[in-house]
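Example 949, ligand FE2/S2 (inorganic) cluster.
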Amino acid sequence: MQITMTVNGEEYTREVEPRMLLTHFLRDELGLTGTHWGCDTSNCGTCSVLMDGDPVKSCTVLAATASGHQIRTVEGLEVDGVLDPVQQGFSEMHGLQCGFCTPGMMMTARALLDENPNPTEAEIREAISGQICRCTGYATIVRSIRWAADHPAAATHTEEVAS
Amino acid sequence: MATTEERPIGFGRMRRKEDARFIRGQGRYVDDVNLPGMLHGAILRSPVAHARIVSIDTSAALAHPKVRAVITGKDLEAQNLAWMPTLSYDTQAVLATDKVRFQGQEVAFVVAEDRYSARDALELIDVEYDTLPAVVNARRALDPDAPVIRDDKEDQADNHIFDWESGDRAATDAAFAAADVVVEQDMLYPRSHPAPMETCGAVADFEKVSGKLTLWCTTQAPHAHRTVYALVAGLPEHKIRVISPDIGGGFGNKVPVYPGYVCAVVGSIVTGKPVKWMEDRSENLMSTGFARDYVMRGGIAATRDGRITAIKVDVIADHGAFNATAQPTKYPAGFFNVFTGSYDLEAAHCKVTGVYTNTAPGGVAYACSFRVTEAVYLVERMVDCLADELGIDPAALRLRNLIKPEQFPYACKTGWVYDSGDYETTLRKAMERIGYDELRREQAEKRKHGELMGIGVGFFTEAVGAGPRKHMDILGLGMNDGATLRVHPTGKAQLGISVQTQGQGHETTFAQIVAEELGIPPEDIDVVHGDTDTTPYGLGTYGSRSTPVSGAATALVARKVRDRARIIASAMLEVSADDLEWEKGRWFVKGDPDQGATIQEIAMAAHGSIELPDGVEGGLDAETVYDPPNLTFPFGAYICVVDIDPGTAEVKVRRFVAVDDCGTRINPMIIEGQVHGGLTDGIGMALMELIAFDEDGNCLGGSLMDYLIPTALECPDWETDFTVTPSPHHPIGAKGIGESATVGSPPTIVNAICDALAPYGVRHMDMPCTPARVWEAMRGNAEPPQ
Ligand code: FES
Ligand code: FES
C-alpha cells in the first residue's frame, strides 16, 4: 500500500506492506537508523519518536497508521546546526553510556519539556518510566533533562560537543 | 556554559568524545549496517527443552518466493560446522542435529530477501520432536535417574561438568570445630540475564574472490572471536575481519560466540551475499549468555565476641545445556574463590560443582567479574547472618574484621594477593555520609510503630583485570592486551587498543591516559577500537579488565613514545638526553626551562629532516603488549536504606550511598556513571530480575513483560563518594570500576531487606525480593524462587 508521512519536516511517499512497523519504516525505508529497537513487547522505549508532538513507541505503530501524520525522530532534534537543549543536556550531564536508549529517551524528554518546561524530579522520572536504560541508572538522565529545562535556549554549542 | 568544564589535559572530568554522534542518532550499531544486496536471516528455535529430532522438513520454506536458503544441522554437519567450541573447552551445537537440549535452541536458519519474509518462512519449517524428560533443577541434575543431557559426548554418563576446590578443607574444618559460633545458610543466587538494550546480531559479508570475511558483530571481544572463527570455520585468520561497531550495552552478554553469528557467516558463504541476523528480545533472553545460577550452602565461624575465623561454601553451579561460560581455563568457577571477601580469616574452603541442565547455555556474565558477584553476595550475606546470630551491629562486625591497611599486600586464604586497600576509612566514610547512627535511631523509633525500615551494609573486594598470562588464558589465549600509538607530524595522535567499548567511554578515557602521559590534549587523540584489521591483538572488554589491562598498555605505550621523544629532543636541542627533564607536554634542559621542545615540535622533528643519533629511527610511533603481574582489587563500602510497606510487602530503596575505591581516577564523571549503572543492576537483581523455568523447562522470563528491569521509578537518586588507594603495580595506579557496583549492591540491598524483616524473624531470603516473595517471607515461608 502507499503511504505518505512527514518526517522531520520532509514529506515521504512509499509503497509498503500493510504490516510494516513504523520503526522499520524509519530505519529500513528512510535510513533513519537513529531510532532503535529493543524488545518485542512495547516495554523498552528505545523506539520512541514523536507523532504530532506526542511520544509514541514506533514498534507499536504501523507505518500505515502514521500515514498522514507528522513524525519527529532524533535526527530532527538538531536544527540548522543548533543542538536541542536536551541533546546538549545529555552530553553535559553524562545522560548516556552506550547510547542505545538515548534517542528514545531524548524524544520523550523533548515531549515532556514541550508540555511542562519546568518539571520536578518526580515528574521527569514519571515521564521516562516507559523507557529502559540498562547503563546509566537514570540519575544522570534526570539531571540531563533538568539541565535542558534550565537552559531552554542553549547556546550554539555544536562545535564543542562535536570535538 | 556553566557546566562546561575546562578540558583537562589528562585526568579529570571531561564530557565524552563519543557523545557527539550518539546524541545526534548517528551511532552505528550492527543493525544500522546495511550493505548492497544484503539478505536477512532468522533462526528457527526449539519449542521444547529436551527432545530428539525425528525429522525436519524445509521444503515449504524453500518454496517461499523470497527465501534464498534454508540451513539445518545436517547441512552444517556435512561441512563439519554443526558443533563449535565454547570458550570453556566444551562444544555447543550451532544448529541441532541429534537432539535439542534447551527451549530456544537453534534448529534451522533461513535466509530471505527481507526481515519479514525470513520470519514468515520459519513458520513453514516442519520439525518433528520426540520429547524427553527435562532436567531443570540443578540440585537434581546429578540424581542417578536424571536423563543424560550431553549424550553427544563420549564418556559422558551423567550431567557432571567439573568439581573445583580452593582453600584448605582440613584447616577450615578445624577452625569450624574450634569456633564458639557457627552459622550456616543456604542461599541461591538466581539466574538472571544481562539483557543489554541492543540484542545480539551480526552482518556477515564473505567475498568469494578474495576469500575475505568481514563480520560486523555485537562482540565485546573482537580479536578472540576472530580466532574462534578461524578455528571453527577453518578460514585463515588473516582473511577474517571482525568489526564490533557501536555496541548497545554488553554486560558480558556479548562475550560468547553465538550460533546466530556462525549461521550468518554460513549464510553469506552459501548465498554469496551479505547476510544480516538480529535476534529479537525473546531470543536474547531465552538463548544467550545468562548469569549466576549458583546454589550455595555457606558457613561462617567466629568467636563469641565477633572475630570471624573461617568461611566455607559448597556450590552447585548451573551451566545450562552447553558449558559456554567464559572463564580463564584454570578457573572453571571464575574467581569465585575471592569469597573470603574483605576480612582477615584463619581458614577458608570452597567447592564448586558444575552441572548440565536443559536450560540456556552459559553462566557467563552480567557484569560479574568472573563470579566475584556470587562470591561477594555469599560472604556479605553470611556476615550479616553472623551479626544476627551474635546480636552485633553489622557495620561494627565488619569494622572488627576488615583487613587492615598495614596488612597489604594481603595473601588471602584461597591464594589471591590483594594489592592495596584502606578498608576501614572507606567504610567509615560511607557510614558518615549516610548518617548511620542517626538511621539506626530512626529505625528503632519506627519499629515501635510497626514500620518496616531496613539498613543494609555491604563491603566488597573485587578481583579484576585478568590477567597474568602464566595463570590466565581463554582457549589457550593469554589474557593480555596490546596498544599502538601513532603520533602524526603535527602532534595529533591515534591510539589503537584491543579492548572494545559498549558504553564505558573508552574513546574519552583512553585519550585521557595518553594526554596525562604525553601532554597531548585528549581532543587531539583519536582512539581506534573494535576492528581487528586496525587494532592490536587482545582479549577484549569484560570482567572490568579494560582499564587494568589495556589502560596499563596505553600508559606504557605512551611512555615509550615519551622516551623516544627524549632522544629526538636531545638531537633538536643539541644536548645529551640525560640533561633533559620532562614536564607534561615537553622536554626541557635541566636548569634552563626556557630551552625545550613540546611534544608537538618533537613529533614534527621526528618526521622531519633533522639528523638523528645513530641507531635511532624516525617517527614517534610505538606499540606494546601488557601482561599484568597481578589482578587489581578495587573495593567499596555500600550502605542503603529500604522501607517495606507492611500492607503490600513492596520494597522501596530510599537511599543508597556507594563509596568506591578504584585507585587512580581517570574521569570521575564516567566512574560515577559506571557506578550508577551497577547499582541499578543491584536493584534489578535484588528486587525483580529472574529467569525461571517450569518443570518442563519452559523459560518463564522470555520477554521484558516477564523479565523485569528497573526503570527510573525504582531507582533512588544515587549518592556516590570515593577514596583513592592506588594499585601499586599498575602503571597509573588504576584498578577498574565497571563491575564494582554490580558486585557490591545486591547483598547490600538484601541485607537491608532482611534487616527490615528482622521483626518477622527473617534472617535470610533469596532474591528477587518481589512483593509476593517478601509477603511470603513475612509469613515464615522464605522458599527460593527456583
Ligand atoms: S522496541 Fe521496545 S518499546 Fe519499542
Ligand atoms: S545508555 Fe545504554 S541503555 Fe541507556
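Summary: The pocket of FE2/S2 (inorganic) cluster (ligand 2) is lined by residues A 96-102, 133-136; B 197, 249, 503 (CB under 6 Å).
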